[in-house]
Amino acid sequence: VIATMRDLRKKEKLEEAAGPALGKTLSIQRLDVCSDSSVAECLGSIPGGHVDVLVNNAGVGHVGPVESISVEEMKRIFETNFFGVVRMIKAILPDMKRRQSGHIVVVSSVMGLQGIIFNDVYAASKFAVEGFCESLAVQLLQFNV
Protein backbone atom coordinates (compact mmCIF):
# COMPACT_ATOMS: atom_id res chain seq x y z
CA VAL A 1 0.00 0.00 0.00
CA ILE A 2 1.28 3.43 -0.90
CA ALA A 3 -0.12 6.47 0.87
CA THR A 4 0.60 9.74 -0.86
CA MET A 5 0.63 13.38 0.16
CA ARG A 6 1.54 16.63 -1.49
CA ASP A 7 3.67 17.85 1.43
CA LEU A 8 5.71 15.17 3.16
CA ARG A 9 6.58 17.61 5.96
CA LYS A 10 3.09 16.83 7.30
CA LYS A 11 3.48 13.04 7.35
CA GLU A 12 4.00 12.52 11.11
CA LYS A 13 0.33 11.81 11.91
CA LEU A 14 0.09 9.38 9.01
CA GLU A 15 3.25 7.62 10.14
CA GLU A 16 1.86 7.31 13.67
CA ALA A 17 -1.40 5.87 12.35
CA ALA A 18 0.49 3.40 10.15
CA GLY A 19 2.25 1.87 13.15
CA PRO A 20 4.24 -1.27 12.41
CA ALA A 21 2.97 -1.44 8.81
CA LEU A 22 5.14 1.56 7.91
CA GLY A 23 8.06 0.40 5.82
CA LYS A 24 6.70 -3.15 5.58
CA THR A 25 3.32 -3.13 3.83
CA LEU A 26 2.85 0.64 3.71
CA SER A 27 5.02 3.37 2.29
CA ILE A 28 4.42 7.10 2.13
CA GLN A 29 5.38 8.99 -1.03
CA ARG A 30 5.05 12.50 -2.34
CA LEU A 31 2.31 13.05 -4.93
CA ASP A 32 0.88 16.33 -6.13
CA VAL A 33 -2.26 15.59 -8.15
CA CYS A 34 -1.89 19.00 -9.81
CA SER A 35 1.38 17.98 -11.48
CA ASP A 36 1.73 15.56 -14.40
CA SER A 37 5.39 15.00 -13.56
CA SER A 38 4.64 14.28 -9.88
CA VAL A 39 1.99 11.74 -10.87
CA ALA A 40 4.35 10.06 -13.35
CA GLU A 41 7.20 9.99 -10.83
CA CYS A 42 5.06 8.48 -8.08
CA LEU A 43 3.44 5.87 -10.30
CA GLY A 44 6.81 5.03 -11.84
CA SER A 45 8.15 4.11 -8.40
CA ILE A 46 5.49 1.44 -7.77
CA PRO A 47 7.01 -2.05 -7.64
CA GLY A 48 5.57 -4.06 -10.53
CA GLY A 49 4.04 -0.90 -11.94
CA HIS A 50 0.43 -1.97 -11.35
CA VAL A 51 -2.20 -0.09 -9.37
CA ASP A 52 -4.97 -2.40 -8.24
CA VAL A 53 -6.95 0.17 -6.25
CA LEU A 54 -6.83 3.94 -6.67
CA VAL A 55 -8.43 6.05 -3.94
CA ASN A 56 -8.75 9.69 -5.00
CA ASN A 57 -9.01 11.70 -1.81
CA ALA A 58 -7.17 14.96 -2.56
CA GLY A 59 -9.27 18.07 -2.19
CA VAL A 60 -9.29 21.73 -1.26
CA GLY A 61 -12.15 24.01 -0.36
CA HIS A 62 -13.16 27.61 -0.03
CA VAL A 63 -15.91 29.14 2.06
CA GLY A 64 -17.23 32.58 1.30
CA PRO A 65 -19.27 34.59 -1.20
CA VAL A 66 -18.30 34.07 -4.82
CA GLU A 67 -17.26 37.70 -5.21
CA SER A 68 -14.59 37.17 -2.55
CA ILE A 69 -12.68 34.60 -4.59
CA SER A 70 -10.54 35.33 -7.63
CA VAL A 71 -10.84 33.38 -10.84
CA GLU A 72 -7.26 32.18 -10.26
CA GLU A 73 -8.27 30.72 -6.89
CA MET A 74 -11.30 29.08 -8.53
CA LYS A 75 -8.97 27.49 -11.07
CA ARG A 76 -6.73 26.22 -8.25
CA ILE A 77 -9.73 24.56 -6.59
CA PHE A 78 -10.77 22.91 -9.85
CA GLU A 79 -7.16 21.90 -10.57
CA THR A 80 -7.05 19.87 -7.36
CA ASN A 81 -10.64 18.72 -6.93
CA PHE A 82 -11.54 17.93 -10.53
CA PHE A 83 -8.44 17.78 -12.71
CA GLY A 84 -6.51 15.97 -9.97
CA VAL A 85 -9.07 13.15 -10.14
CA VAL A 86 -8.95 13.16 -13.95
CA ARG A 87 -5.13 13.21 -13.99
CA MET A 88 -4.87 10.21 -11.64
CA ILE A 89 -7.51 8.18 -13.47
CA LYS A 90 -5.93 8.88 -16.86
CA ALA A 91 -2.58 7.71 -15.51
CA ILE A 92 -3.75 4.35 -14.17
CA LEU A 93 -6.61 3.52 -16.51
CA PRO A 94 -4.73 2.12 -19.52
CA ASP A 95 -3.11 -0.59 -17.38
CA MET A 96 -6.37 -1.42 -15.58
CA LYS A 97 -8.17 -1.74 -18.92
CA ARG A 98 -5.38 -3.91 -20.33
CA ARG A 99 -5.49 -6.21 -17.30
CA GLN A 100 -9.32 -6.10 -17.19
CA SER A 101 -9.03 -5.49 -13.47
CA GLY A 102 -8.98 -2.67 -10.94
CA HIS A 103 -10.97 -0.44 -8.66
CA ILE A 104 -11.24 3.34 -8.63
CA VAL A 105 -12.67 5.03 -5.55
CA VAL A 106 -13.34 8.74 -5.67
CA VAL A 107 -14.03 10.57 -2.42
CA SER A 108 -16.40 13.40 -3.22
CA SER A 109 -18.86 15.35 -1.12
CA VAL A 110 -22.56 15.79 -0.58
CA MET A 111 -21.88 19.18 -2.18
CA GLY A 112 -21.38 17.31 -5.44
CA LEU A 113 -25.10 16.58 -5.30
CA GLN A 114 -26.47 19.72 -3.67
CA GLY A 115 -24.93 23.15 -3.39
CA ILE A 116 -24.61 24.86 -0.03
CA ILE A 117 -24.49 28.60 0.58
CA PHE A 118 -21.00 30.17 0.39
CA ASN A 119 -19.53 26.96 -1.08
CA ASP A 120 -20.30 27.77 -4.72
CA VAL A 121 -16.94 26.97 -6.30
CA TYR A 122 -16.24 23.94 -4.13
CA ALA A 123 -19.70 22.56 -4.94
CA ALA A 124 -19.15 23.22 -8.65
CA SER A 125 -15.86 21.29 -8.58
CA LYS A 126 -17.55 18.36 -6.85
CA PHE A 127 -20.51 18.43 -9.27
CA ALA A 128 -17.92 18.13 -12.06
CA VAL A 129 -16.37 15.12 -10.32
CA GLU A 130 -19.76 13.46 -9.94
CA GLY A 131 -20.65 13.93 -13.61
CA PHE A 132 -17.24 12.72 -14.78
CA CYS A 133 -17.34 9.61 -12.59
CA GLU A 134 -20.93 8.72 -13.42
CA SER A 135 -20.13 8.83 -17.14
CA LEU A 136 -16.85 6.97 -16.73
CA ALA A 137 -18.35 4.21 -14.58
CA VAL A 138 -20.68 3.15 -17.38
CA GLN A 139 -17.81 2.99 -19.88
CA LEU A 140 -15.55 1.01 -17.55
CA LEU A 141 -18.03 -1.80 -16.83
CA GLN A 142 -16.91 -3.54 -20.03
CA PHE A 143 -13.32 -3.54 -18.71
CA ASN A 144 -14.18 -4.96 -15.26
CA VAL A 145 -12.97 -1.72 -13.66
From TrEMBL:
GO cellular component labels: cytosol
Transmembrane feature ranges: none
What Gene Ontology biological process does one annotation of this record name?
retinol metabolic process
Keyword list (alphabetical) reads: Oxidoreductase
Superkingdom classification of source: Eukaryota
Q: Name one GO molecular function term.
A: all-trans-retinol dehydrogenase (NAD+) activity
List the PROSITE patterns hit by this protein, alphabetically: ADH_SHORT
Mind telling me which InterPro entries this protein's record contains?
NAD(P)-bd_dom_sf (IPR036291), Sc_DH/Rdtase_CS (IPR020904), SDR_fam (IPR002347)
PANTHER family in alphabetical order: RETINOL DEHYDROGENASE 8, RETINOL DEHYDROGENASE-RELATED
Q: Which family does it belong to?
A: Belongs to the short-chain dehydrogenases/reductases (SDR) family.
Question: What protein name applies here?
Answer: RDH8 dehydrogenase
